Amino acid sequence: MIHMEEVTRIFDTGKVQVKALRGIDLEIDTGELLAIMGPSGSGKSTLMHIMGCLDTPTSGKYTLDGELIQALSDNELADIRNEKIGFVFQSFNLLPYASAYENVELPLIFAGISAKRRHQKVTELLERVGLADRMDHKPNELSGGQQQRVAIARAMVNNPRIIMADEPTGNLDSTSGEEIMNLFRELWKAGNTIVMITHDPVVSDHCPRVVHLKDGLIENGAMQLN
Amino acid sequence: MSTWYLFRLFTRELKNQKKRIWLTVSGIAWGTLSIILLLSFGEGLKRQLGKADRGLGVNIVIMYGGQTSQVYQGLPKGRRIRFTDEDVAMLRQKIPNITRISPEYDLYGTTMTYGNKTLTERVTGVEPSFEEMRTHYPDAGGRFINKIDVEQRRRVIFLGNDLKDRLFGDQEAIGEIITVNNIPFKVTGVLKRKMQMSMYGGPDAAKGTIPASTLKAIEGRTYLSRIVYQVNQTDYAPAVKKEVFEILGQKYRFDPSDDKALRFWDTIEQRKVAYNMLIGIQVFLGLIGGLTLLIASVGVANIMYVSVKERTHEIGVKRAIGAKRKHIKQQFILEALLIAIVGGTIGTAIALVLITALRGIPVSEGPLELLGKPTFSLTIALATAIILGIVGLAAGFFPARRAAKVDPIESLRYE
Description:
The complex is a heterodimer of chains A (about 230) and B (about 425).
Chain A: E1 2-12, E2 17-28, E3 33-37, H1 44-51, E4 59-64, E5 67-68, H2 74-83, E6 85-88, H3 100-110, H4 115-128, H5 144-156, E7 162-166, H6 174-189, E8 193-198, H7 201-205, E9 209-214, E10 217-220
Parallel strand pairs in A: 3-8, 3-9, 6-7, 7-8
Antiparallel strand pairs in A: 1-2, 1-4, 4-5, 9-10
Chain B: H1 3-16, H2 18-54, E1 60-65, H3 85-94, E2 98-114, E3 117-126, H4 130-133, H5 147-151, E4 156-159, H6 161-168, E5 177-180, E6 183-190, E7 208-211, H7 212-219, E8 226-231, H8 237-252, E9 262-266, H9 267-310, H10 312-320, H11 325-360, H12 368-371, H13 378-404, H14 408-413
Parallel strand pairs in B: 3-7, 4-6
Antiparallel strand pairs in B: 1-8, 1-9, 2-3, 2-5, 2-8, 4-7, 5-6
Helix pairs in contact in B: 2-9, 2-11, 2-13, 9-10, 9-11, 9-13, 11-13
């Protein structure tokens, strides 16, 4: 589903050119649970931004679901992020003044979905992550683990083709972290494709396939392990 | 995108930023208050001046005899032109566009006595058309001099309301006999109080009015002090004036183009000038109010910029989950508009309360008579609403554009 060929990303800061990605070849199939590991500065985040259509490669080819990403306009990229990709962040990134319900509702608002359908989807997703009784709570009334569940529900609400999680357990204690990983595994088993960026071996241990990144290049794991 | 959703989130956010948003709202309220008050005072001034202007009369021209300044048909220049009763009759007959006309005789320094009170004031002799033309409307129970008074040279007098107060105090004057230069006159009516801004010879409230024929007979006058006429339509005034020159020029033998032969006080021309000046004043007042509101809108824009900066991360998150640039823009423009609407409504409400309170204060003297009646009109309401809308949009537009330009990657890093 994800196909990357010789993808590079060079940040031009004026005087210095920073080569964050120096030629990535990567293939991810539907239904995979994949961890991308690497030390800081290895290009993990840049890779995720490109994969998540928040950024485009400087050179090389990236197709998502058969669509060549470089060729798309800003609005088309927004649509892809909205419909095909679900983001989960390390620091949850929920809107602080909106309830759990409203946070999950937001992507559906951008997608222009009717209020009735929104209600159905949001309720369904919050039930699925086990927060049916916390719908009206604000983020600061929820624990870290619960906030991350809301974020996962938000990522899932538009039935994305792929979920991208950037250090999803980085801000959680080990128990909550374990719970979140179990939730991800459940979602994976239900057929979702999940890509995780992490430097935590506990997280990558959950993942059947691990890709190691170093200095903007893939060290190993480019081929599929299982 | 769902405006209702945005609105809900915005009201939620209000609680977080209470002080800042209310300061902004009060800025807009203050701007709205000043623009409405200034415009209402302008409108009130215009209406009061209009009323005061009508005190002299509407569409009237006051004409005096002048001196010829050109030799004509063998006659030297410098001849005095003086009007008689016949001229009035002739003009009335020959110019159909003159709807009302009257001679006017002045009698200055007239002694008027009632009981043991004696006053020295002006008396004028006129015809009944003065009632409508020069707004000499009687107060309840009285009447102006009429046709029969003139025909029979009756000794009746119509008193200005000030004159009546000074002569009679609170006592009823109608039907009473006063002496005018030692000749007894019967009071037929008292002038109804009116605003009068422009005048000749003194305010109508301070003089007595008697039939022209009576004055002429008592004083043995031949020449009039002036002729007052009214045209049926403002636009006809110049043509009528030309006809007057031609008709009187023929009679008194002066060149119709000799503009020194007759002297005019053309209140129609004067009113046009005054009206334009008032429009100028209103525009000026509106500009001051508009500028106040503009300053307030700079405040709103400023707050919005701060808000964009503070919510950079939030914008990044929204972009990541699929918000387009327009979604981000909408949010900020809507917020600025809401601030403008709420502030505008509060400002308008306060302005209306103040205007109502001010109008309730009874004033009948001095400059307050003109300034003390601020008037709120539909035009003012519309103008204010339009200005507020523009202010809100403008205050939201630039910050919104900045927000839409936020790079999602940069902003996600920004924590």
